[in-house]
Amino acid sequence: MKIALASDHAGLHLKENIAAYLKESGVAFYDYGAYSDDSVDYPDFASTVAGAVQSGEYAFGILICGTGIGMSIAANKYPGIRAALCSETFSARCAREHNNANILTMGSRVIGAGLARDIVEAFLHSGFEGGRHENRIIKISRLEQK
Ligand code: RB5
Question: N or C: which end of the chain has fewer CB within 10 A?
Answer without folding.
Answer: C
